[in-house]
């Protein structure tokens, strides 16, 4: 019976770790998309060469990516708190340290 409890505990910890990795990857990818779209939009030379529809699409993608990043970050924080409750060896989540780029 004790072996089954240990196995369940390890399985739960493994699932928490996998979920945290997936969540962190999602945050990183959405931040990258927002960054690339923002960088293209901020570059006046590139913006001139792009069509009006392309610029509009990039603006929409940038806004959606920023919103998705916020949602993914909130989900990741939830997963981290859940994992910490179950696995006391996990450290608390670091505070978000990002600089806002003025455009």
TrEMBL record:
<keyword id="KW-1133">Transmembrane helix</keyword>
<protein>
    <submittedName>
        <fullName>Uncharacterized protein</fullName>
    </submittedName>
</protein>
<feature type="region of interest" description="Disordered">
    <location>
        <begin position="84"/>
        <end position="103"/>
    </location>
</feature>
<keyword id="KW-0472">Membrane</keyword>
<feature type="compositionally biased region" description="Basic residues">
    <location>
        <begin position="93"/>
        <end position="103"/>
    </location>
</feature>
<keyword id="KW-0812">Transmembrane</keyword>
<feature type="transmembrane region" description="Helical">
    <location>
        <begin position="20"/>
        <end position="42"/>
    </location>
</feature>
């Amino acid at each position: 019976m004790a072996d089954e409890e240990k196995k369940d505990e390890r399985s739960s910890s493994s699932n928490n770790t996998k979920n945290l990795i997936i969540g962190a990857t999602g945050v990183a990818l959405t931040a990258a998309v927002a960054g690339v779209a923002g960088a293209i939009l901020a570059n006046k030379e590139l913006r001139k060469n792009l069509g009006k529809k392309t610029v509009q699409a990039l603006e929409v993608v940038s806004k959606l990516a920023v919103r998705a990043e916020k949602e993914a970050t909130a989900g990741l924080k939830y997963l981290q708190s859940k994992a910490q409750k179950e696995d006391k060896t996990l450290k608390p989540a670091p505070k978000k340290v990002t600089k806002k780029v003025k455009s």
